[in-house]
Amino acid sequence: MKHFLFLFFLILFCLFNFNDSFAQDNALDSLKTQLQLHTGKDTTRVNLLIDIASAYFRTDLDSTRTYLEKAKSLSTNLGDIKGKANAFRLLARLENIKSDFTKSLDFLQLSLTNYKLINNQEGAARVYIGMGINYYNLSRFEEAMTAYQQASKIYQLLRNKRGIATCQINIAIVYEELGKYDQSISRYKQALELSNQIGDDEGVAYVNTNLGGIHQVQGNYPLALICFYEALSFREKVSDYEGLTYTLHSLGEVNLAMQKYDKALTFFEKSLKHAVQIGDKNNIVANNSNIGDIYLTKTDYANALKHYTFSLHISEEINNLKQIATVKNKIGKVHLLLKRPLFARSYFTEAMQISQQTGNQRILANSLMGIAETYMYNKKYKTAISYIQKSKKIADDLLLLPVQQKAARFLYTIYKKTKNYQKSLDYHEIYKRLSDSILNKENIEKITALEYEYKYEQELSKAADRELKLTKTVETTAQNLEKSQRNVLISIIIFLGSVLMLGSIIFFLKLRHANAKNQNIVIEQKLLRSQMTPHFIFNSLSVLQGMILGKEDKKSVTYLSKFSKLLRIILENSRDKTVLLSEELKAIENYLELYHLEHESYQYTIQVDTTIDIHQFKIPPMLIQPFIENAIEHAFIGHKGVKKIDITLSMVGKKLQCIIIDNGIGINTTLTNKHTSKNSVSTTITKERLSILSKNYNMKGTIEIKDRSITNEKGTEVILTIPYKLVEL
Fold first, then answer.
1. Nearest to residue 15, comparing CAs of 85, 83, 89?
2. Per the CB 3.0–4.6 Å rule, which of 48, 168, 621, 693 could disulfide with 573?
3. CATH number of the domain at 572-726, out of 3.40.50.300, 3.30.70.2190, 3.90.226.10, 3.30.565.10?
4. What is the distance between the alpha carbons of residues 410 and 424, in angstroms, rounded to a whole number?
5. Is 0.70 topped by the overall pTM?
6. Which residues form the Signal transduction histidine kinase internal region domain (predicted)?
7. 99, 131, 102: which is closest to 283 by C-alpha?
8. What is the CATH number of domain 320-439?
9. 3-state SS, one letter per residue, for 330-361
10. Beta pairing, strands 602-608 & 643-652
């Protein structure tokens, strides 16, 4: 991610955060009125001009420059050294926003000279922080650290907790760029404690944003979202458009990492709009780069290169070395996908050299991995492994989960191609474990809950605002009409109460709808997890390993083919709300054939009524398989003889019915077995899902399970009524 963006905003804002700089609209109007009334050309007028310029920083940079130029000119004519120092410092901030870091440093040097003339320690400390910001943006991290430490010494002498917190934040940012995450988190926590002590809500929001960035880099998306949504809520509340630019971009990056591309694009476009309005080139670069990432996922390489090239051009224009290295890595990836490994390697190598120069370990890890991939393309596996191991070492040190995952996947592929099957299997297991760590069931549920909670809080806030406005209207009306218009007043109150009640009903209906939608998502994720448990995958791989070691070549090839087809079908079907009946039957048949290869004592049949066109019916995926799995795992415990499972699909009236019959020990016996108490989990999930699907399809879905002993037969019979849609041929 382009972590420098919101970090930059944090330190930028903290640099110039003095007591009366950030007035709200009414305070700004008050300052303008004072300026009009104060006609004298004195230091009071200089201070008013600077305060107005500071208040405009969030919304109108052109007005900011106009007032600062007036303040600089007047303070120079008056010989007002402090006023001139303040004007130079804020002009430096303005140039920093415009990404002219060299010019910003020039203004800061002029400001520092004037502060030293009057021995203004507070002003000098702010200048040192400003210098650190510019050195940071120029990737001169050692000079940035020195500047921040000088500022910190001054603030400690002054016992200024806000200033100390600002320095802790900025030092944490430098540690983060150098990949020293433990030291960075420690500094952030110190800054957070100080910000809470002095009641600095803005400081808390900025620390949360930066901590979110670290959690994102390490693949901990739920914690990252908590931090970003807290920051977003604050910045929306105070209409901080500059801060919104960075926070929206950060949320876009988390959604991009979670492969929620449409949602990510929405965040990036909103962030880009704000960045263009305030002329923030850093964020213009980052958002274009990320929009290129989305085109890359859609295999639209031409548009991806277009956005990357534009981003690279602006990055070189403002000499942002970190972003240059990041974009070169991305361009290298595109060339690799276009089967141009030599072009790709040149870009990855340039990015590697820049990262080594700036000391950015995270980008360096990605560059090394890119170079390794180009050698893999040319089948130079020994060279590729050396680069992968270098990248993996950095990722292990910094806990960069996505890079660790890619390293495991590449090593699995290389060892498979070089026929080192044991190592290949080892790295495949590592890869799967890392994949589950990034987006496991718990994380998915946490993320869904976080997004729902944020929307809920937004709606509550809006409802509270509406209620407050209505209450004020009622009170005003009561005062005006108390004596002569009581009847009219009562009518107004009744009307407003009705509006409020109607608004509340609509609000809670929307909440209920959102809750049902989120519940459906969670149930689908649970069902997918129940189909693809690590236990099932591990058992399948163990069976395959046994066949290979037993030199059952043909059987192992057939087993592997069936296993891969089953995984592919399950994953493909899980993306869609409905699938063709033919596709669902393929998954079931592959599942049964897989077990038949492992245990040849199983026999099964799948019969479809001739009145059913399996290419015309679309049904919800993953409904039938859990019951077949239950039959295989639990119906034949202690059973001797041939094990049979018969599956029949037929139309009963307008209902699509699936009947699953086995000749096992029966459901009544199964339920009394203490070792099979967990077999109802997938059945329960399916019942919950059918309840929701019945409403969505406007068609009843049911499950009936009965023991065949009631008809003097052995086994269990499951009757499943499936909601469906017909495809027009």
1. 89
2. 621
3. 3.30.565.10
4. 10
5. no
6. 524-598
7. 99
8. 1.25.40.10
9. HHHHHHHHCCCHHHHHHHHHHHHHHHHHHCCH
10. parallel
